[in-house]
Amino acid sequence: MDKKRRPVIAGNWKMYKTTSEARNYAQSLVGLVGEISELDIVVCAPFTSLPVLKEELKDTIVHLGAQNMCWADEGAFTGEISPRMLLDVACTYVIIGHSERREHFRETDEDIARKVKAAIASGLKPILCVGENLSQRQEGKALAVVRAQLQHDLLELAADDLRKITIAYEPIWAIGTGKTASSKDAQEMCAAMRSTLSGISGSIAEKILILYGGSVKPDNIAELMAQPDIDGALVGGASLTAEGFAQLIKNACIA
Ligand code: 13P
Question: What pTM did the predictor assign?
Answer without folding.
Answer: 0.97
